[in-house]
Write a structure and sequence with these properties.
The complex is a heterodimer.
Chain A (H helix, E strand, L loop, with lengths): L1 E10 L6 H12 L11 E8 L3 H16 L5 E10 L1
Antiparallel strand pairs in A: 1-2, 1-3
Chain B lengths: L1 E6 L6 H12 L2 E6 L9 E4 L13 H4 L3 H10 L4 E4 L1 H8 L6 E3 L7 E9 L15 E8 L3 E3 L2 H9 L3 E6 L18 E5 L5 E4 L15 H14 L2
Parallel strand pairs in B: 1-2, 1-3, 3-4, 4-11
Antiparallel strand pairs in B: 5-8, 6-7, 6-9, 9-10, 10-11
Classes of the chains: A alpha+beta, B alpha/beta.
């Protein structure tokens, strides 16, 4: 089966993100004050797997081994059948 | 005795490290391309640079290259491994050292001379320094903000695995002396066995008088001495 996966990776809560802080300030300069701003990375992938569970565990493994750094990141995986 | 200096796409301190090892320290050192075999070496230096353009995270791609399995095997045998700057980032990304190196608290590339305090002088890299000695070695990085979970930091402290901290001239680890926001001013750490060192400052840029400091050379000298006695 073909699966469509979307992975969202962000810093664990409470961790300092200087890039997000800088962007938040720049938005303020434009007249858009915000209470908080987080920046995340999103990976969109298509993969072949025997089942949805298998696809889920493959993508989970990808996150643990490369896409995310478990020391600093949380990640979220969404999987849908495709094709 | 022969030391390997690893080269990944985007390494840029590889030649400096090889020069210091061969011409200043006086030991054989080969540049080893990441696709080549890492065999017959007594120690490894993972040099600085911007391997793979810092794609994904600094050091993340190089850390997954198969040659790092060979580095792990050498480290398991007790041979010395040192990662400098991007090399340190590669070592934490590969899990050979704990923690992570995040964007500097003030998100700017910092290129400067800094004072470091030697907090561990029993490792193969630091045993020619006095404990508490303040040394001067330059930094050049944007992702040098050392972070680890609290329990990891307390383990590093209790096992005396913090090799170097950023300090002022008197040796105090103040927040003004911290160039990147690192937890507890940490600039360099050791693994549990003490034979892997990761550090953000560049010892190869402080190995000759003409560069203003020879403090960095002592790290390579000690490493070579350790290999001789191995």
């Amino acid at each position: 089966m073909q699966y469509h996966a979307e992975v969202t990776i962000g810093l664990k809560s409470g961790m300092l993100d200087p890039e997000a802080t800088t962007i938040k300030k720049a938005l303020e300069h434009l007249g858009f004050p915000t209470d908080s701003l987080e920046m995340q990375k999103r990976f969109v992938l298509e993969l072949d797997a025997p089942s949805r569970d298998a696809a889920q565990s493959q993508v989970d493994e990808m996150c643990r081994r490369l896409l995310a750094n478990p020391v600093i990141h949380n990640f979220d995986i969404e999987i849908e059948e495709s094709g | 005795m022969k030391i390997a200096v690893l080269q990944f796409g985007g390494s840029n301190c590889d030649y400096d490290v090889q020069y210091v090892l061969t011409e200043v320290v006086g030991v054989d050192a080969d540049l080893v391309w990441y696709k080549d075999e890492l065999k017959g070496y007594d120690g490894v230096v993972v040099p600085g640079g911007f391997s793979y353009g810092d794609y994904l995270r600094a050091g993340a791609i190089a850390a997954r290259a198969p040659i790092m399995n060979s580095v792990r095997k050498m480290a398991d045998k007790g041979l010395p491994v040192v990662g400098i700057c991007n090399g340190f980032q590669i070592l934490v990304e590969s899990g050979l050292l704990p923690g992570a190196l995040m964007t500097n608290r003030y998100p700017k590339f910092r290129c400067d001379r800094v004072n470091l305090r030697v907090d561990n002088n029993t490792s193969p890299f630091t045993n020619s320094f006095k404990k508490g000695q303040v040394i001067r070695i330059p930094i050049a990085h944007m992702e040098g903000n050392y972070f680890a979970q609290e329990h990891t930091i307390s383990e590093l402290n209790s096992q005396e695995r913090v090799a170097f901290r950023y300090v002022d001239e008197q040796g105090n680890a103040t927040s003004e002396a911290n160039p990147n926001g690192s937890s507890e001013n940490i600039a360099g750490i050791l693994n549990e066995q003490g034979n892997i060192l990761g550090m953000m400052p560049h010892p190869e840029r402080a190995s000759e008088n003409i560069l203003g400091s020879k403090d960095g050379k002592k790290i390579f000298d000690s490493m070579v001495e350790y290999i001789s006695s191995f």
